[in-house]
Amino acid sequence: MTRIASKKILEYKGELTFDIIEDILAKFKENMQDIDIELVIRKRLYSILVESLENTYRHNCEVNSTSNHQSVELQLITRSDAFELIIGNYLPNSKTDELAEKIDLINSLDLVGLNRLYRASISKARISDKGGAGLGLIEIARNSRQQISYRFDKEHDKYSYVELKINISKNPNKLR
Amino acid sequence: MNPLIIKETTATPEIRFDIAKNDFELKGCSRPEDVRDFFTPVIQWLEELKAAVNDDLIQKHASDPVVFNFKFDYFNSSSAKFILDILVLINQIHSLGLAMRIDWYYDENDDDMKEVGEELSEVVDFPFEYIMVEKKPSV
Fold this sequence. Notes:
The structure holds two protein chains of two kinds.
Chain A: E1 7-14, H1 18-32, H2 39-59, E2 72-78, E3 82-92, H3 93-107, H4 111-124, H5 136-144, E4 148-154, E5 159-169
Antiparallel strand pairs in A: 1-2, 2-3, 3-5, 4-5
Helix pairs in contact in A: 1-2, 2-5, 4-5
Chain B: E1 4-6, E2 14-18, E3 23-30, H1 35-52, H2 55-60, E4 66-75, H3 77-95, E5 100-107, H4 111-124, E6 129-133
Parallel strand pairs in B: 3-4, 4-5, 5-6
Antiparallel strand pairs in B: 1-2, 2-3
């Protein structure tokens, strides 16, 4: 049986602030220096990391101290032919259906469809009270060019832990 | 009009808008902590420029177009919304008769950035000039 080598590039568990995001991104750049990949993949990975962190920062909700996970949990792993970003945070249960619908829609589209959705969305985008333009998930999908997988763990009647898994091929020409 | 000069940080781009010198540049990485706070003065400056367009300014730039240089290494999706707003304003100012050009710079190994420019150009319906540069990657 062939063993697929994987290596953790980045890991973080805890609260998320803008300063902590800065630290995580600085760590990412530092740890990526020794990894030989094309610039276009490096930038796509960076973009996915930024959008994932900013989405989490905006939409994360406060939870009890007895929760199963930390406020945010993140891992970035490199495998032989792809990177995998796993990011989890807590979301109010009132928001989980909306998130699932959004991801399901995005997953149903090919790259042409995603680009069409992005162009339609950016034209009518408004910055929300949380500071986002509603384009983050589309941008993650456009850069990853693969399906976003997700799961919800309902830990409380008010909130659930949501985990996203995003794969990024090391082949810049790989399409959805 | 007074020039708009915003210095670059790790999370925000350098912005230089100076109509007297015909020096317009947006450069670096854009993922501000508060995107509205960062870009509102930029949008306001362009709206003032739009209000200031008159026959003298049009005449002055008839053979020396106002050139906006976009030299982004990266911008997040929230910034993209405001970059689109900037481009819409540039197009509106151009429609008033002021000769303008948009130069979109991209790294020779970063076709994605060129494609992002092509996409914005299509959304705004304003042609860009695409300029490839040899540059050290910042990410």
